[in-house]
Amino acid sequence: MPTGNRAVLARAVHARARDHRKLLQHVLSMAVLAIAAAGCAVESGDSRLAVPAASTGVSTSLSEVSVLGEFTHRDLKESSSAVPSRRTPGVFWTHNDAGNDERLFAFDSTGRDLGTVRVRGSRNRDWEAMAIGPCDEGVCLYIGDVGDNLREQKSVTVFRLAEPSPPGYGRAAGDTVNAILRFQYPDGAHDVEAMWVAADTSLWLATKRRLRDASGRNRPSLVYRVPASAWRANIVAVAELVDSLPIVPTNNPSSMVTDAAYSAPFAVSDGEPRLAVRTYDRLLVFTSTRAGRPGTLLAECSLEDLNEVQGEGIAWLPDGRVLLTSEKRGAPVHAARCP
Asked: Average model confidence (pLDDT) for the chain?
């Protein structure tokens, strides 16, 4: 066979194999989703856990996808979460994780560096989550030092500080922690990268990695809640296991939960609450209660076409799209809609 024909045939075979892989991934994803929606509560080992039901209109493709820009700050190389500023519209906050200093990075939607703020009174053991919500000072950032890859921490910490202003924005920066919450899980240590805060300042967290029940079956991602009262108690609080998600983490990165974004942490004026939960290459959007609890699954979208190096951050944009960030110096910042 002539060389040119062999090359054409090879490309055709490669394309067909790629399409078959995508079809198989889609079928497996839908099967896992159906199993999770039907029986995750039993599989979790706790029949009290509610499980958000899958909708009949689950989407598998993002829409309105765009590359807004890329991170320009050279020290920002492991963006592990992203939150929109409440004080300064158009500004977002992110941070590095373990092995880095206690710094917040401000950026705009194009990834342009807007300066950094050092968080006094904190320690970055493994910052893996961040959320924005109300507090006594008005608006606060909640920094979750909750990463625990080896699941060996007896307790973890969330730092709260009044939301600062980026350098040069003309308002005093709240750069000192005003509250520290330490807590533990009732069933042992967990690795967590997804955290959100409800209007009453209660914390919600979803586990990242593979968990197994007594019979060896994979459990769904578990959802824990730390009540608002814990902020006023000078003790190590105990989170309550209250729910699970129709995501069953395995050793496949697509199933590992890496961040979450809650759309209405402040008031009714924020609209109907939505909760977005991402893995390395999937995005799930749920309804939510005003108290922060996940509800019905509205859509599931693949993030594979974004080709992120290690996609971890997610934040809601005002128009209902999401902003997505990834680890790596100079990583692109994406915007998309799901569904």
From this structure: 86
- Please state, in angstroms and rounded to a whole number, the distance separating the CA atoms of residues 90 and 110: 10
Closest to 285 measured CA to CA, from 58, 26, 27, 49: 58
* CB-CB contact of 63 with 285 (8 Å): no
Sheet holding 63-70, edge to edge: 63-70, 332-337, 322-326, 311-316
Model pTM? 0.85
Cis peptide before 339 (omega within 30 of 0): yes
**Closest Cα partner for 105 from 146, 139, 72, 148?**
72
User: Is the pLDDT score of 32 beyond 70?
Assistant: no
Give tens-digit pLDDT for 110-154: 999 999 999 999 999 999 999 999 999 999 999 999 999 999 999
Torsion sign across C-alpha atoms 295, 300, 306, 308: positive
Cβ-contact 93, 104 below 8 angstroms: yes
The answer to whether residues 73 and 113 touch, using CB atoms and an 8 Å cutoff, is yes
Amino acid at 19: D
